[in-house]
Automatic annotation (TrEMBL):
Keyword rRNA-binding: no
InterPro entries: Papain-like_cys_pep_sf (IPR038765), Peptidase_C19_UCH (IPR001394), Ub_carboxyl-term_hydrolase (IPR050185), UBA (IPR015940), UBA-like_sf (IPR009060), Ubiquitinyl_hydrolase (IPR016652), UBP13_Znf-UBP_var (IPR041432), USP (IPR028889)
Main location: cytoplasm
Subunit description: Interacts with UFD1. Interacts (via UBA domains) with SIAH2 (when ubiquitinated). Interacts with BAG6; the interaction is direct and may mediate UBL4A deubiquitination. Interacts (via UBA 2 domain) with AMFR; the interaction is direct. Interacts with UBL4A; may be indirect via BAG6. Interacts with NEDD4.
Protein name: Ubiquitin carboxyl-terminal hydrolase
GO terms, biological process: autophagy; cell population proliferation; maintenance of unfolded protein; positive regulation of ERAD pathway; protein K29-linked deubiquitination; protein K6-linked deubiquitination; protein K63-linked deubiquitination; protein stabilization
Top-level taxon: Eukaryota
Gene3D superfamilies reported in the protein's UniProt record: Cysteine proteinases, DNA helicase RuvA subunit, C-terminal domain, Zinc/RING finger domain, C3HC4 (zinc finger)
Record-annotated active site: C345 (nucleophile), H819 (proton acceptor)
Subcellular localization, as worded in the UniProt entry: Cytoplasm
Length: 859
């Protein structure tokens, strides 16, 4: 055992000193009550620091608290020790050495001390024959930094040995939380290793497939034994089928099939009829090659597989990712990529755009010392801490450094390789922000627009004091509703965070080309020939903007002037313009078979956008307002209608209807709400509810059960202006703090007791500012007495002139599949963020984007 002050850059303390087993025991005695053995349900973080992206691969290693099992890098472990008094940490470090060539005969890299990191997942990219690992673990006792090398079974007390062994052998905390979300947990099929494949000369074309037993051209499965292409069951893929693939298995017993259209270099959807579940086929590339499919040069497209060598620069996959151009990697602050965790590109693209906005940079990274110092005891479960950690990781440049030739030569001379981390893994951030959300917590692809609204909601709920960076997105929409019969109008305002533009397909400027392409494509499919070169619809942006501003019919409009249902029209205008305007192109729709489809269109999005003409004008001279009368409450006699107008118990929701809707690609929580609010009347009725409500901001949010007095309660709470609960105020004042301090702290932290106490300690300057707080309390009480109208939402109104600075693009046929990348304009040039790869963009595909981010131009 040794005392190593040098570990933290302190002079001296590097001498060795041997101690007997009794000495080690005596040294640990004062700390034994704080050393715990991980129990079932404990999350053990040994791969990533709670405050940074340091890992055992980092130069300073990682320290795991032996009480909380949180991990900290060298820069942050002292903070945790000072805050909690926990003294015993396990230090983990992985050393990477260049293997002596020829010594191992080409074997895979081995791990020395293999008992140390049995389940260490550090996203190591050096899995090659050129390097070998040496893993190190030891106990470190603070504040004197005494070290005890591990394993040390003979000298350590039994409890400490058991605790160390449990920490080292613990599984990933993310898999423990939700094992069903990990794709790599799929079982390997027992038929994959010895699968029989018939030499029948079958070769599968890249497109134009059709079921061998019917005319279906979607949801097709390739049997890996005889090459038959047959349709699946409806529940396989939610896209319809007559079950011929299953019948083929029952007739001949050929067990494995792969879904056509899902084959990429990373794998494909494989199903085992014999095992009755999705499986992994470790020899899939070989099995596909038997039928002429080169898996490593394929990717999924709407019509099937397309070889990368055919029709270059036409597929949206190639255009959006700028395939075929020599892209120069970018390094340094603001040029850090995010590693893909498996369908996490929607999150990565949104977060790259978010942290390119100065207001978010200042709110989180600018307040890093205060947010980290006053974070709760478990910072992995605090939104502001994890936002700050992610922002610092992206903006600091610490995890995006170019390789230096001189350093590489020096490392080779020393025979030790220092891995250069490029890109960060947002695993901890994703686990927290998606917690309790059934869609985002899964490993499936999601809608970037839905995640953006989900993130805004989290920012709103966890704002830091009075500072709320999401204010930059918020704007007011004025909706003018007119009764067509009486011509009377009603003006209402609502809050929104993005502008949704419809795709004006009827305004395409190349209609003749589109018609000719469609005829040629159908002929090619019928004759099983290669598809023609893609022709993409070209839509003028002005036509989409015009479609946005045009009146739309209001279904089931009840006219208060007629006291009856009537025809009504609605127009929307901006009552305020946000500082940053997010524009979503509504590319996704639904076919007649309820399957989500995507408009593959090109829209000439402008670099400079002027929407001042969309400014709301309010009630105009000569307009007459509709009477402020609510529709009558009708209690129908029909039992069916009565069922639809009463609340059902959430436990009685028809799960079969929910799953039918979910298999169509709708978010699970939206499906539950649809079935709930339509009174279990079946999937068809619930589907109609989805179509009506799918553009609402909370469409995919979890179902909130309404109460019979819910509306009144909401109105009362709004009048309280965020009045904290009296019991929480009393609890803080019982600790010796003034009432005004308690009120201000609770208002600044959404009445979170732990964060309110941290806020009090971090804001001593507010202690004397009692007059302001008393005035706020008096105003709140006055609001209750006078029932005054509460203050409206905060908006940052200004000019409607904007310039484009970022856009997110989607590749694939629906938001439930495919891939997202982000382009951001930085320092005068466009940069592409494609997961962990960050490069200077040569040809930014601004016409193919899905979400566009505009900043206001000062007038």
């Amino acid at each position: 055992m040794q005392r190593r002050g040098a570990l933290f850059g302190m002079p001296g303390g590097s001498g060795n000193r041997k101690m007997a087993a009794g000495d080690i025991g005596e040294l640990l005695v004062p700390h034994m009550p704080t050393i715990r053995v991980p129990r079932s349900g404990d999350r053990v973080y040994k791969n990533e620091c709670a405050f940074s992206y340091d890992s055992p691969n980092s130069e300073g290693g990682l320290y795991v608290c032996m009480n909380t099992f949180l991990a900290f890098g060298r820069e942050h472990v002292e903070r945790h020790f000072r805050k909690t008094g926990q003294s015993v940490y396990m230090y983990l470090k992985r050393h990477v050495h260049e293997r002596v060539r020829g010594a191992s005969g080409g074997a895979l890299p081995k791990r020395r001390n293999s008992k140390i990191f049995l389940d260490l997942d550090t996203d190591d990219d050096l899995n090659s024959d050129d390097y070998e690992y040496e893993d190190e673990a030891k106990l470190v006792i603070f504040p004197d930094h005494y070290e005890i090398a591990l394993p040390n079974i003979e000298e350590l007390p039994a409890l400490v040995t058991i605790a160390c062994d449990a920490v080292l052998s613990s599984k990933s905390p993310y898999r423990k939380q939700d094992p069903d979300t990990w794709e790599n947990e799929l079982p390997v099929s027992k038929y994959a290793n010895k699968l029989t494949q018939l030499d029948n000369g079958v070769r599968i074309p890249p497109s134009g497939w059709k079921c061998a037993r019917c005319d279906l051209r979607e949801n097709l499965w390739l049997n890996l034994t005889d090459g038959s292409v047959l349709c699946g069951k409806w529940f396989f893929d939610s896209s319809g089928g007559n079950g011929h693939a299953l019948e083929h298995y029952r007739d001949l017993g050929y067990p494995l099939a792969v879904k056509l259209g899902t084959i990429t270099p990373d794998g494909a959807d494989v199903y085992s009829f014999q095992e009755e579940e999705p499986v992994l086929d470790p020899h899939l590339a070989k099995h596909l090659a038997h039928f002429g499919i080169d898996m490593l040069h394929m990717h999924g497209t709407e019509n099937g597989l397309q070889d990368n060598d055919s029709k270059p620069r036409i597929s949206e996959w190639e255009v959006i990712q700028e395939t075929g151009t020599k892209l120069k990697p970018m390094y340094g602050p603001g040029y850090t990529g995010l590693k893909n965790l498996g369908n996490s590109c929607y999150l990565s693209s949104v977060m790259q755009a978010i942290f390119s906005i100065p207001e978010f940079q200042r709110a989180y990274v600018g307040n890093l010392p205060r947010i980290f110092d006053y974070s709760p005891l478990d910072p992995t479960q605090d939104f502001n801490t994890q936002m700050t950690k992610l922002g610092h990781g992206l903006l600091s440049g610490q995890y995006s450094k170019p390789p230096m030739k001189s350093e590489l030569i020096e490392q080779v001379m020393k025979e030790e390789y220092k891995p250069q981390q490029n890109g960060i893994s947002p695993r901890m951030f994703k686990a927290f922000v998606s917690k309790s959300h059934p869609e985002f917590s899964s490993n499936r692809q999601q809608d970037a627009q839905e995640f953006f609204l989900h993130l805004v909601n989290l920012v709103e709920r966890n704002r830091i004091g009075s500072e709320n960076p999401s204010d930059v997105f918020r704007f007011l929409v004025e909706e003018r509703i007119q009764c067509c019969q009486t011509r009377k109008v009603r003006y209402v305002e609502r809050v929104d965070y993005l502008m949704q533009l419809p795709v004006a397909m009827e305004a395409a400027t190349n209609k003749d080309e589109l018609i000719a392409y469609e005829l040629t494509r159908r002929e090619a499919e019928a004759n099983r020939r290669p598809l023609p070169e893609l022709v993409r619809a070209k839509i003028p942006f002005s036509a989409c903007l015009q479609a946005f501003s045009e009146p739309e019919n209001v279904d089931d409009f009840w006219s208060s002037a007629l006291q009856a249902k009537s025809a009504g029209v609605k127009t929307s205008r901006f009552a305020s313009f946000p500082e940053y305007l997010v524009v979503q192109i509504k590319k996704f729709t639904f076919g007649l078979d309820w399957v989500p489809k995507k408009f593959d269109v090109s829209i000439d999005m402008p670099d400079l956008l002027d929407i001042n003409h969309l400014r709301a004008r309010g009630l105009q001279p000569g307009e007459e307002e509709l009477p402020d009368i609510s529709p009558p409450v009708v209690i129908p006699d029909d039992s069916k209608d009565r069922l639809m107008n009463q609340l059902i118990d959430p436990s009685d929701i028809d799960e079969s209807s929910v799953m039918q809707l979910a298999e169509m690609g709708f978010p699970l929580e939206a499906c539950r709400k649809a079935v709930y609010f339509t009174g279990n009347m079946g999937a068809e009725v619930a589907f109609n509810w989805i179509i009506v409500h799918m553009e609402e901001p909370d469409f995919a949010e979890p179902l909130t059960m309404p109460g019979y007095g819910g509306a009144a309660t909401a109105g009362a709470s709004a009048g309280l202006d965020n009045q904290p609960p009296e019991e929480t105020v009393a609890l803080i004042t019982s600790m010796g703090f003034h009432r005004n301090q308690a009120l201000q702290a609770l208002r600044a932290t959404n009445s979170n007791l732990e964060r309110a106490l941290d806020w009090i300690f971090s804001h001593p300057e507010f202690e004397e500012d009692s007059d302001f707080v008393i005035e706020m309390e008096n105003n709140a009480n006055a609001n209750i007495i006078s029932e005054a109208k509460p203050e409206g939402p905060r908006v940052k109104d200004g000019s409607g002139m904007y310039e484009l600075f970022a856009f997110i693009s989607h590749m694939g046929t629906s938001t439930m599949s495919g891939h997202y990348v982000c382009h951001i304009k930085k320092e005068g040039r466009w940069v592409i963020y494609n997961d962990h790869k960050v490069c200077a963009s040569e040809r930014p595909p601004k016409d193919l984007g899905y979400m566009y981010f505009y900043r206001r131009i000062p007038s």
